[in-house]
Amino acid sequence: MAPNADSMPPSTLKMKPPARRQKLHTVDMWLEDKREIDGAEGLWRVGDKLYDLTDFIKRHPGGPEWLELSKGLDITEAFEVHHVRSNPEEILKKYYVRDARIPRNAPFTFKEDGFYKTLKREVAKVLPTLPKQSIRTTNFFIDSFFCIFIFLSILAVTYWNFILGILAGNFLAILAIAAHNYFHQKDNYRMYYFNLSLMQVREWRISHILSHHLHTNTIDDLEISAWQPFLQYLPIKEKPLRRYGQWLAAPIIWVTGFHRSYITRVLEYISGRGYMGKGDLIPFIVPLAMYIFGGQALVSTLIMWTFIVCVGSTHFFFVGLHAAHHHPDIFHDGDTPRSESDYDWGLSQMDAVMDRKEITGSHFLVLTNFGDHALHHLFPTLDHGTLELLYPTFEKVMTQFDTNLRMVSQLDTIYGGFQQLVRVQPSTCAPDLKKYKYERKL
Ligand code: HEM
């Protein structure tokens, strides 16, 4: 199923892959493997220094989970990109233990005069001047999605109506996408809307935030390796039948994604390797409400719920996989990088993303379609409603660094996603950000 290790070319960023990358890779396996290669020696690594943050875990303003999960890892990128409003470097210094013994397993840098740090300083300056109304609007949207989703699910089972079930499924998907805005931030209750999808906040904080967001489209990105037995987004040699077979496999992957996530978690938990907690009971609120208020037999209720979850899963993964990262002109590990040793982290993100012109400019569409994706990657803790207010600053710094955000159509990212699945030839040129025009709806 998975491509064998021989068919996997080395990372063109010279990154060492997590040891079990070629196997079906769960989030806890990824954490274990990273601890082996990050050189953090059971502590927390920032740059080339090691810190013991044990006493700070419970006091961390973003919530304890971030530091619990990242113990034993290199958190350089996580530390840099999650603190825009303040500068916790002074706090960090208090926990210094010793220097790291081995070099970092990533070429990404955060130089004071580089693109990312310059942009971050400019964004930090404008943030206090921005209106808070956009955050309240985001909260209103997501609470409404939750109510509509529950209401439609109950109606669907009451009237045994699959059209209503499709509507409910689509609301489940946009609820989960919008909830993604919240689990990037400090702990808050709205992030748990995400668990209604059968997926789990903890799991996504690892696979999506600590892996995908920080080393996007590299050999270390779990959102590439976790799909790998079925979908291969890196440009590697494959037999044509297998490669094109992915176009047929993809819809099956989308439909079953939510259920597979839960089942894999249960199996991992039973075998003593995975984590489950109270949050894993959240999804059952939905069939319970459907059963109590719908007036149908338990079996009918469960059938309708399963149907709704399958629709939601299809919508979620179709949108997610065609939102921003997969297109033959986007950098994927194996392609020629901009740099393999001194690669500004912000520019690495610009090389691994495209934004969609139909989505940018609409608060609703951005929240429900993983929109403003470049800015979201650069500042993941900022509310999606705030991102659109940052474009003038972003444009100013892009001009200063003579760089560009690639804006394409939604159709381009869908078509590009399917093309990327069958791309076997690595690109021999560094990504050309000027190839696509930057245009933003005002
Ligand atoms: C895996 C590494 C880390 C992650 C993912 C992380 C994540 C976060 C998040 C999501 C927030 C909330 C931000 C917001 O509401 O805008 C936050 C806040 C904060 N974190 Fe961390 N953190 C990490 C490591 C650290 C470390 C090592 C320190 C200091 C030793 C630290 C100090 C703070 C402080 C002071 C705040 C509150 C001020 C602010 O928002 O900048 N964090 N963190």
From TrEMBL:
Keywords, in A-Z order: Heme, Iron, Membrane, Metal-binding, Transmembrane, Transmembrane helix
Cytochrome b5 heme-binding domain sequence ranges: 47-101
Gene Ontology BP annotations: lipid metabolic process
SUPFAM superfamilies linked to this entry: Cytochrome b5-like heme/steroid binding domain
TM ranges: 140-160, 166-183, 281-299, 305-324
Entry GO MF terms: heme binding; metal ion binding
UniProt KW Lipoprotein keyword: no
Matches recorded under Gene3D superfamilies: Cytochrome b5-like heme/steroid binding domain
Domain of life: Eukaryota
Function in brief: May play a role in muscle cell metabolism.
PANTHER family associated with the record: CYTOCHROME B5-RELATED PROTEIN-RELATED (PTHR16740:SF1)
Protein family: Belongs to the cytochrome b5 family.
The protein's name: Cytochrome b5-related protein
Taxonomic lineage from the root: Eukaryota, Metazoa, Ecdysozoa, Arthropoda, Hexapoda
